Amino acid sequence: MSMASLAGADGYGTKVKQIAARYGIYIAFAVMFVFLSLWSPWFLTFDNILNILRQCSINGIIAVGATLVIITGGIDLSVGAIVALAAVSASSVAHPDSYPVIVPILVGLAVGALCGGVNGFIIAKGRIAPFIVTLGMMTIVRGASLVMSDGRPVINLSDEYNTIGGGYLWGVPLPVFLFIAVVLIGAFLLHFCKFGRHVYAVGGNELAATVSGLNVGRVKLGVYTLAGLFAGFAGIILSSRVMTGSPAAGAGYELDAIAAVVIGGTSLAGGTGAILGTVIGTLIIGTMNNGLDLLNVSSYFQQIVKGIIIISAVLLDQYTKNSR
Amino acid sequence: MASDWLLEMVGISKSFPGVRALDDVCLRVRAGSVHALIGENGAGKSTLMKVLNGMYRPDAGEIRLRGEPVQINGLKGALDLGISMIYQELNPIPAMTVAENIFIGREPVYGRSGVVNRRRMNADARRLFQTLGLEMNPSARLSSLSVAEMQMVEIAKAISFDSEIIVMDEPTSAITDREVEKLFEIIHTLKAANKAVIYISHKMNELFRIADEMTVMRDGRYIDTQPTDKLTPQSLIAMMVGRRIDEMFPKEDVPLGEVVLSVDGLSQDSRVRNVSFELRRGEILGIAGLMGAGRTELVETIFGIRKPSAGRIRIGGRPVAIASPRDAIRHRIALVSEDRKLMGLNLRASVKDNVSLVNLARYCNLGGVIRARQEVDVVRRQIDRFKIKVSSYRQIVDTLSGGNQQKVVIAKWILADPEIIILDEPTRGIDVGAKSEIHKIMVALAREGKAIIMISSELPEVLGMSDRILVMHGGEVTGEYARADFSQEAVMASATGSH
Questions:
Q1: Which residues are CB-contacts of A20 (< 8 A; sequence separation ≥ 6)?
Q2: Domains plus CATH for chain A?
Q3: B325 and chain A: CB distance < 8 Å anywhere?
Q4: Which of A23, A183, B38, B141 has its CA 20 to 30 A from that of B197?
Q5: Which tens digits make up the pLDDT trace of B29-76?
Q6: Beta bridge partners of B214
Q7: In sequence order, which residues have a C-beta less than 8 Å from that of residue A59 and are 6 or more positions away?
């Protein structure tokens, strides 16, 4: 502080850059928010904000898992397919008058965790690049959900099940609470637990982590299992909200999650990042989709804008980091 | 007298932040001769050669070729002037073929098309091997070759530039006796063609066989140049170690306790061979030797990073099996590794996260939740104890100086409360002040009854800090000296294997 004030104008410039480097993504989000509020009268309404949050919740839940994976220096391409398999398997035990609602929930979570666990096990034990393992798993899991459902969406789900994604509490959609819960769990694990510290250590320098006595394989098994678990959870919420367990669900969700993580300032090189950044990244993508809808931009064109924003966010991040 | 000398480097000085690497160094080399450049690790040989090959620009001094002053601009500039170099560290591209590696960046092409003329490239390579008397397939992939063969490719590549001056930095460190003979034949051919070879090696027998003249460097300074027939291995070693003003070391005599570590016939493939020693509480055991002597491999084997191929380790008298660093840590061994950036630190994390890493479980409750306040307290105490200069415990380690980074590594390992502390080159590349502080830390630890192993390539440090010295050469222990019998000459002789 005192250095900056002593250095006068030059110090002031440096300080601006430091602030930009630290809070760039928050500033970008704020600017976007203010702009849309002024531009569209429908944007800043209670209903619309809730709508955005609800739309964000599924991507956000997957992105929390992706954050853990990416901080270890890995990547998980299979989460979109896991969403589908969890949706199909949970839905198939969620018909009215069959099982209590807890059963489909546990089935969906177990399926997700199992797929993630297999990813983690192969990556840790086989020492194969996560990109390859999860790419293979993506295809396998997508195929499994098609086989399981015979290619047809699973319909006729119980009201209780449909409440998970479609219900409200105090006027707020339930998925929003579930999103918040997953964020809190993720942040707790990553920032307050030994496990989280080990996640950073593995991504920052795997060899140093090994030499420091960490069980690197177990850390990897942990992050991929969690990524699968959260993807399974997202699959439950999605199928419940649309009242259908579709084997085609979740296509491309892995990329939206990675985008949210990267926009949030987590480096694909591993070792850095935070859950809060991912939350902001998710909100930026969700707000942008919503804003472009309100501005009547075609959904085709929206994809182009989304791509530009992803690249710009990382460029901004690089620029501010280098000038530090 | 326009030039007896093919190459003259006169009054070369070069400084890096905090270090004077070269101080007024001279080197004069005749055409048609082999000139050996000799000195301990860190004497400045490699730096001088990096000035010659254009990698470093000297702060002062002049380089003349055949009496003409020249400016050397980068590696390419050196090659254009007829200076090529065989590097100590191999840098081949494993997925490419022998010929592709040799002609990389100057591949023969069809006309101006940019399409590589593979047939001509392979033919050129074959002709090169023929003139050198080597048997090698130009289209073999580098990855399929042995290290020795790769080294021969590297040598062939340096010669393929048809340079006037060829620098060979430890060219025989990775090759077998048969290939050494081949190399010497090649060197004779080069001499006959009136080329100059600058030959860097620690191996006395080679030097006396091949060199016409020798220049000795020490601590970044020029010592002397002599024709080989005026020198003996003894006089050469005396020049290398010199008579130095004794540096001040804070070493104290600590009463030695019981044996905590005993290593019996430990081998690790061919890198460590049948090493045995004991280590006592309160003792500082120095391990001296030249680069590649197997010292790092020895301690990495003890620490479970490498798998031993034979031998036993006992701790406190009990045989132990150490298959991983986790096991080693459980047996209360710590390893401050040679390369702190590679194995010691997570550069992207804070000082706190690095210091508490090994021992994190102790600052967690049963559910694995970190007790944050306790962790911060402990880390702050380590920062104070080791006088680590940081703006806050949150500072990212990457932004610290080398000396402070090293202290972070030491602080981290001491926090794990080890009984046996292995320090591999603990003061390499750090400034004098930090160095002396690390020496004081070592003495304090010995006083607490810890057993310490210190690897160092700096003779004065080994001599100044150790209670006992093991000297290694070629993976074996070639000498052991008690403090009363320390002498630079004896240690150096054991390290060069000239006993």
A1: A27, A320
A2: 40-322 (1.10.3470)
A3: yes
A4: B141
A5: 999 999 999 987 668 888 899 999 898 999 999 999 999 999 998 888
A6: B36, B226
A7: A253, A256, A257, A260, A282, A285, A286
Distance separating alpha carbons of residues A203 and A270, to the nearest angstrom:
5
Residues in chain B: 499
Contact between A101 and A64 under an 8 Å Cβ cutoff? The reply is no
Show which residues on chain A lie within 8 Å of chain B, measured between beta carbons. 192-195, 197-198, 200-201, 203-205, 207-215, 271-272
Instruction: Name residue B264's beta-bridge partners.
Output: B312
Separation CA A74–CA A128 (nearest Å): 11
Which residue do the tokens 């590549």 mark? Answer: B157
Give the residue carrying structure tokens 């190399």.
B183
Q: Is B368 on the interface with A (CB under 8 A)?
A: yes
- In this structure, the strands spanning B318-320 and B83-86 are unpaired
Q: How far is B330 from chain A (nearest CA, A)?
A: 9
Q: Which domains does chain B have, with CATH numbers?
A: 5-241 (3.40.50.300), 245-332+418-499 (3.40.50.300), 345-417 (no CATH)
Question: Who's near B16: CB < 8 A, 6+ residues apart?
Answer: none
- CA nearest to B183, candidates B229, B151, B138: B151
CA angle B337, B340, B341 (to 5 degrees): 140
B358: contact with A, CB 8 A cutoff: yes
Calculate the CA A33 to chain-centre distance. 21
Using a CB-CB cut-off of 8 Å, the residues of chain B touching A197 are 353, 356-357, 360, 370
Picking from A197, A210, A321 by the largest number of B CB atoms within 10 A of its own CB, the best residue to mutate is A197
Residues of B in contact with A2 (CB under 8 A): none
Which chain A residues are Cβ-neighbours of B376 within 8 angstroms?
A: none
- Residue B369 near residue A203, CB atoms below 8 Å: no
User: Do B453 and B285 form a contact (C-beta atoms < 8 A)?
Assistant: yes
Which helix (H) or strand (E) element contains residue B284?
strand B284-289
Q: Do B346 and A201 touch (CB under 8 A)?
A: yes
Provide the number of CB pairs (under 8 Å) joining chain A to chain B: 76
Confidence of residue A11 (pLDDT cuts 50, 70, 90): very low
CA distance A99 to A106: 11
* Contact in structure between B433 and B254 (CB atoms under 8 Å): no
- The DSSP 8-state label assigned to residue B69 in this structure reads E
CB atoms within 10 A of CB B65: 18
Structure tokens at B106: 């100057």
Residue B474, judged by CB atoms within 10 A of its CB (0-12, 13-18, 19+), counts as middle
SS3 B474: coil
Residue of A193, A201, A203 with shortest CB distance to B368: A193
Q: Quick: pLDDT tens for B158-214.
A: 888 888 999 998 888 777 778 888 889 999 989 999 999 999 987 778 889 999 999
Q: Interface pTM (ipTM) of the complex? A: 0.84
In this complex, do B358 and A212 lie within 8 Å of one another by their Cβ atoms?
yes
* Global confidence as pTM: 0.79
Do B6 and B166 touch, CB atoms closer than 8 A?
A: no
**B468-473 and B284-289 as β-strands: parallel, antiparallel, unpaired?**
parallel
- Tokens representing residue A177 in the block: 């609470």
A198, A211, A219, best to mutate vs chain B, most B CBs in 10 Å? A211
**CA-CA distance, B121 to B104, in Å (whole number)?**
10
State the distance between the two ends of chain B, measured CA to CA, in whole angstroms. Answer: 43
- The answer to whether the beta carbons of residues B345 and B354 sit under 8 Å apart is yes
Select from B1, B21, B24, B19 the least CA-distant residue to B9: B24
Determine how many CB atoms are found less than 10 A away from the CB of residue B310: 13
- Cα atoms in the 13 Å half-sphere on the side-chain side of B193: 16
